[in-house]
Design brief:
The protein is of the alpha/beta class. Helix content is about 35%, strand content about 15%. GO terms for molecular function: 2 iron, 2 sulfur cluster binding; 4 iron, 4 sulfur cluster binding; ferredoxin hydrogenase activity; iron ion binding; NADH dehydrogenase (ubiquinone) activity.
Amino acid sequence: MVNLKIDGQKISVPAGTTILEAAEKVGIKIPHLCYLKDINEIAACRVCLVEKVGMEKLVTACNTEVEEGVEILTNSPRVREVRRINVELILSDHDCKCVQCVKSGNCTLQRISNDLGIIEQPYKNIHEVNRWDFDLPIIREASKCVKCLRCVQICDKIQGLNIWDITGSGYRASVGVGNNKKITNADCALCGQCITHCPVGALRERDDIGLLRDALADPDKITMVQIAPAIRTAWAEGIDISKTEATTGKLVSALRRIGFDYIFDTTYTADLTIMEEGSEFIERFTHKEDYSWPMFTSCCPGWVRFVKTQYPDYVKNLSTAKSPQQMFGAMAKTFIAQKLGIDADKIFSVSIMPCLSKKYEHNVDQVDDAGHGKDVDLVLTTRELDRLIRADNIQPDDLKEESFDPIFGEGSGAGVIFGATGGVMEAALRSAYFLITGENPEPDSFKSVRGMKGWKEATFEIKGLQVRVAVASGLGNTRRLMEAIKKGEVQYDFVEIMACPGGCVGGGGQPVHDGCEYASPRGEILYGLDKFSGLRFSHENTAVQMTYDEFLEKPNSHRAHELLHTDLEN
Ligand code: HC1
Ligand code: SF4
């Protein structure tokens, strides 16, 4: 153990601990901007400077290890002065239009600057004013970039994609798309992890709220919204409502106040996806010789973009089942319109997703099969939903428990856990077991695929058949798994991949809590909802059963293929 003093407090910590971590152990918070544990410990921002008594030079707390007998001052006059100058220098290169910034109120630089009482800008040196605005859901505003390099590191170390890099040199050094590429021709998966780890507003999603406002105000449009499984765990994080108060019923209430005509649940089509994908798996499993192996899930468009650019030989291994978002869109403008007795041409179909790449997915032409324009007209993120709720001045106390509109708001616990890594696999196995044996398994039989581990594997026996499965989340883990498959080091039958670490609960469109990962607690909430759900099997969802009885006939029927499957090889 190493003994030292921090701000007068004696402390003993293991060798190798950084000053920042040691200070946190005794409740002393050292401000920092660029630091991300184990990912970005490069001290680029120099906000975490502290004084080692007796040493002339200040040291950075995030990457300096403790030493025996030293005394550290985290808030001495010298530290305060230099820290302040460093933040003023960062601000000199930052477009400080806070009131017009999407991160206002949730910006680490704004908070640090306010905490230091900086109200003047003594240095002004903005040289980067370019802002790109391609037709992609990701937007970068270089004039806001503080060169913390978090985006570079997240993309490289966690997502294994290296889209971002340092560009230029000297005082012109900046962050941009590497290899002299534009974002439109880089291999970006659009997972949005760079956005959720940007401490300022230099990276953000395209804001599509205006398009929703137009639709809500148009008397000729019928607005229909679906909410993704992972929204229910995170929607309240951006507004003033506690976790325990933030029920799905209150979210439905907020959506009614916003003005949607019909409010449904993507979980209905998550269950439909299980019926289609589960049946497809059984068909492939029993005719292995006709297919490329293993079969991969295809509901995550970040993963689909990744496999297309990084492992194109494996595109044919993807399930042809559309994602629940797109299945909902296809059903909205066909069967749902028919059941509700409304004109499909008037439907404006909106989805609220924890995801950036869903904004891309709904725009891909080959997913439109209902014959009434886009199957999904608009995709908003959880963050946009929170902005809508705040903009409409919807008060949490006024929200009551309300139900989804019947009947397409019905979803099983199996559909709900889609939002967490391993959830699609577990839901699929619950129904595959039923489809193979004619009996339900114990609902938690496949729970060994739960948890935040980046690459999990298991073998299950169903009626004498060994089914080898793997689950990965995060594209860096995915690359490791794909390399192992390619080299023949591992053999699986069915593989679930989600681009974001932890699955959609950790999605690139979710509320941001700087430096904290929320995927795990959000996932726990989904598993809790499943556990206490009266309906834990996709095949028991009565809305799904009715959909087959009255419209699709059976899973993988001709009509189901027309509407619910797509050829991802194009
Ligand atoms: Fe997801 Fe899915 S789980 S992909 O993360 O299959 O976005 O929540 O809606 O489509 O259901 C996202 C979440 C979501 C789809 C489902
Ligand atoms: Fe979107 Fe979920 Fe995939 Fe992330 S894991 S890219 S949130 S679908």
